[in-house]
Every structure is written in C-alpha cells, then in structure tokens.
Design brief:
The structure holds 2 protein chains of 2 kinds. By secondary structure, chain A is of the alpha+beta class. Chain A contains 4 helices and 14 strands. By secondary structure, chain B is mostly helical. The chains are: A alpha+beta, B mainly alpha.
Chain lengths: 211, 339
C-alpha cells in the first residue's frame, strides 16, 4: 500500500518535472467586461478552438500534441499540461479546426456538436465565437469559421517561449474589439470575406507572456 | 463425434451466411465503393435500429411534433409526399423540396447546394432550423438522455445510460446508410435476371444518349452541380450552389439528383415546381429561357418526339424499387408504439 503510494508520488513528480503547463486566458478590463469608447461591453460568449499544438527547438519540430482539439472558454482561465520531455524554444498552434478534422464526421468531447460550436446549415466548426451586449455599442454576434478556399479563416500562430515551464497565452480583448469596431462589422454567421478579415484580427490579438 | 462435426459445420455455414447478409446490402453489385468511411462508423444492427428510432421520433423537434419522417416518408423513397416545399414545425414552409433519401453512402456531400459535407452532420441541419424542428442540438440530446425508454436502449447498445451528441449522430448516420436502393427492374436487367420491354429498351438508349452524362449510371447521378436551365423561382430567389461558394459561376446550380425511385418522389426539382415526370420531359424538350451558365448539354431543347418521351418515361419507371419502398426494416419501428 505504502509502496504503491510512494510509486505514485514518484511518478507524479517525475511527470511534473517534465510536463509543461500551458495557460490560456483572456485580458479584459474586469471579466466579463471591457471598457470601450466610454462604454461597458459585456462579453456574453467567448469560445474558441486551439488545435495542432507543436513545440520547436531551433526551428526543428520536437513535439506534437496528441489531443485533437481544445475548446477554450475565454471567460475563464484554462490550464493544460503537455507531456513533452524535450527542450524547446518556441510554440505554435492553429486557431480553428482544419479540413482533416472537419472531414472526419461526428467527433466527441471538445468537438461534440452539443458544444454549440458547429454550424448546422453549412457544415463546419465555428472556430471562434464572440457575442457581446452593451448599451451604446451595437451587440456583436461573430461566429467565425470556414476552412476552405476562398473563405479559409484558419490561423497558424507561433511564439518564442522563454519560460518553458509555464507558458501563458493571452487574448487581448480590448485590442480585438477596437479593430472589429473600426470595420463596423457586427454580425457574422457564415464563412465570408469579412470572416477572413476578422480572423486575422483575432490572430493579432493573441500574445504570449513570458514572466 | 460425427454428429458434433455436422452441427459445427451447420453453425459455421450459418455464421458465414449471416456475415454475408450484413455485408451485401451496402455493396450491391454494379455500385462503386462507398464514399462514406465505414471504418469510422462500422455498421451494427442494433445501432442502425437505434438510428431508425431517432429518425421516426418527434422528440427531436421543439414541440415534439415533427420527426425526420414527417418530411422524409418511407413510402415516397423518403421524400416529402405532395409538398413542393417541405412543411415543418408550426406548419412553416421550408425553403426547398425535401429530397428522397437512399444510397447516401455514395454521396460526397449533401443538400441540393452541397452545403453539408458529411452524412454524420446532416441531422444537425433540420434539428436547428427555425422552419423545420427548431431545437438546439444539446437540448435534444438532454431530452433523449432523460427519456427512460431510451436509457434502457442505450444500456443495451452502448452499455451506458446516456449518449453523447457524436454517438447520436453516428447512429442516425447508420440508419441513413442502411437505406440502400438497388433492387429495381433496371438492376435486375443489369444482373441478367430480367429483360427490358421493347419500349423500355428504346427509352434506355435515349436516356443514355441525352441524360446519362449527368444522371449517370448506376447511381443515376454524377454528383456534380449543374444549372439545368429551369431558372430561379420568383419568390424564393434560391441561388443554389452560389449560396455556399459565393462564386458567380455557381449561380443557380443544383446537385444533379439521382433518378432512382423517381416515380415516387413527385413533385420535382429543388423547388418542386413540376408535378409530374411528363412536365419535366416537356420542360427538357421545349424552348425555354436560359442563363449565362446554363449547362451546354441542356441549353437547347432535346430533340425528342412525343413517342421518344413516352419511351424515356417507360425506362424511368424501371428505376422504381418496391423492395426498398416496402422494406419493413426501414419503416416506423413497431417497438415505439408500446411507449
């Protein structure tokens, strides 16, 4: 009994020593609110998919995460652990669900269509969903998706990593809302040229903090 | 010992027969390899039956009144009888004519504009459409998971009392995959087990000449999108494939539909504008306005005499598959009556 316990303890610390912690969070004024142009914007829904997480060393691939997709709820901090054991200096991931996964048919867990991240009438996952409410600004209803030409909204992001124990990926909401506001786009419900533009704004709003 | 050997042999033979019984329906003889990846969702009798139950169950709609079968009736090859545009919840009129459902394992995409790229995902569309079933998918799954008779079924099939959305979709897809139609007179003729009448034969030759490059044998569609020249409906302004691709070349293009069981699936075309096959042939053979991208093969009226048209019609009736229409394994499951 004690032996088993000790073994588990050792195993845990062994895994801990090699695993990376990766934290996804959203930078808002005070979640779920953002102050924008003297207005308080309430974030009703903020969800997105991260896939194909990879770690690199000197531009050589050292690790590809085996879990298919992470559905991140941007309204709370989410931490995952990666089972990588090798040294690395940068990280990359895809924002959205690529065609290889899209063509697989019904999938479970984070990709289960009960999560509300799947378009019914034009099949495909919603990569990024943002819905807001506010008194002065028009409410936003942005369902960004599309994985095929000409409305491919997939984004591949890469960051240099200095603290390899704890990686913190942040979505800067104010920056994103300002960019969206400048375009006067309020509602997107299907793949389109506008969706492709907004997807590029979303990609620009992610950053890594290496504290 | 001899007796035992005999019994063993019979058992083995029976097993062999059974395994073949389950394998044949999906690979009828002249058909190509299915597009659907069956390895990702191996067909199982009990899962097909579960999917069939879902298909006939109005629990999938918001007010528990509309099932898939409300629009896709088995006695019309799973098309919507007598309605040009499908009727859904609260009697709202849908946007398009509900198509027949069979041989879906060979389809590379679904819907008349190809908006849906995988059979598994098809059920999501009607469930959440405001004119059809008006439900949210996660609510449907929680309604089903709360239902005691389903709980018993799920325990039997999946060894757990509740199922995920993905499991629901896969079961529904299995039932749809089981809808294989390949027992028409045409099929018997191709297998050398029957022969066409003189008139049917003439019709077949005309069909091969004028129609088969779109309505291609043996599935009677080549799964391309084409503008066959019927033009947009004044009220619906249905732009067809363009709705998906936003590419002006795709304006007014619709999926070439299969002509199998065409006798049972009136009215015709995406908006159900033609009530009879005679009307369809009249359209294809008389002068009509065309659009810039009307397919060259149908731009000019087909030079078919009244007699030719009757012959083609006679051939089209050879595509009716009564075994399919009256197959009890596709019908409303009697087990649902009990509860």
């Amino acid at each position: 009994m004690i032996k088993a316990f000790l073994f588990l303890l050792c195993l845990c610390s062994y895994l801990q020593s090699f695993s990376q912690q990766i934290l996804f969070s959203t930078k808002a004024s005070t979640t779920p609110y953002v102050y924008l142009d003297q207005d308080t914007v309430e974030i009703k829904v903020l969800k997105y998919y991260i896939t194909k997480l990879q770690l690199w060393k000197h531009q050589q691939l050292v690790y590809t995460d085996q879990r298919g997709a992470y559905l991140i709820d941007g309204l709370r901090d989410t931490t995952y652990y990666l089972a990588n054991k090798k040294p690395f200096d940068s990280l990359s991931f895809t924002l959205g669900i690529d065609s290889a996964i899209q063509r697989k048919g019904a999938l479970g867990k984070d990709l289960d269509p009960t999560n509300g991240m799947y378009w019914a009438w034009q099949s495909g996952y919603i990569h990024f969903k943002l819905e807001t409410h506010s008194s002065n600004n028009k409410p936003l209803q942005l369902h960004i998706g599309g994985y095929a030409y000409p409305f491919n909204t997939l984004q591949r992001l890469g960051f240099k990593v200095s603290n390899t124990k704890k990686i913190s990926i942040q979505l800067e909401l104010l920056k994103l809302l300002q960019q969206i506001n400048s375009q006067k786009v309020f509602k997107i419900m299907s793949p389109s040229a506008e969706a492709v533009l907004i997807a590029s704004f979303i990609a620009q709003s992610f950053s890594i903090s290496n504290e | 010992m001899n007796k035992l050997g005999c019994i063993l042999l019979i058992c083995l033979g029976w097993l062999w027969l059974c395994s073949h019984q389950s394998a044949t329906p999906l690979f009828p003889k002249p058909f190509p390899k299915p597009i659907y990846d069956l390895a990702s969702n191996p067909l199982q009798k009990d899962v097909i039956d579960l999917g069939r139950r879902f298909f006939y169950d109005p629990i999938l709609s918001k007010n528990n009144t509309i099932s898939c079968a409300s629009c896709h009736s088995p006695y019309n090859a799973f098309a919507h009888v007598d309605h040009a545009l499908s009727h859904g919840i609260y009697d709202r009129i849908g946007f398009r004519n509900a198509p027949a459902l069979f041989n879906v394992a060979w389809a590379p995409y679904f819907m008349q504009d190809g908006a849906i790229h995988h059979l598994d995902m098809q059920a999501l569309a009607p469930i959440s459409d405001s004119n059809e079933m008006q439900e949210t998918f996660d609510h449907v799954i929680s309604k089903i998971n709360a239902d005691t008779s389903y709980k018993i079924l799920f325990k039997k099939v999946y060894h757990q009392p509740q199922i995920s959305g993905a499991q629901f979709l896969k079961a529904m897809a299995q039932f749809l995959l089981s809808l294989v139609s390949a027992e028409s007179k045409y099929d018997s003729v191709m297998r050398g087990k029957a022969s066409f009448s003189q008139q049917e034969k003439k019709g077949y030759l005309l069909f091969q000449k004028h129609c088969a490059n779109c309505h291609q044998e043996p599935l009677f569609t080549n799964y391309t999108f084409a503008n066959n020249g019927i033009g947009a409906d004044q009220h619906l302004h249905d732009l067809g494939r363009y709705r998906v691709t936003k590419d002006s070349n795709d304006l007014l293009k619709f999926k070439v539909p299969s002509l199998r069981n065409i006798e049972f699936t009136a009215p015709y075309m995406h908006d159900g504008r033609f009530a009879s096959l005679k009307d369809v042939l009249r359209f294809y053979t008389s002068p009509h306005p065309t659009q810039a991208n009307t397919d060259n093969r149908v731009k000019h009226p087909f030079p078919l005499s009244a007699n030719d048209q009757v012959d083609i019609l006679a051939f089209l009736l050879c595509l009716s598959d009564k075994h399919f229409i009256f197959n009890p394994q596709h019908a409303y499951p009697k087990s649902m009556l009990k509860n």
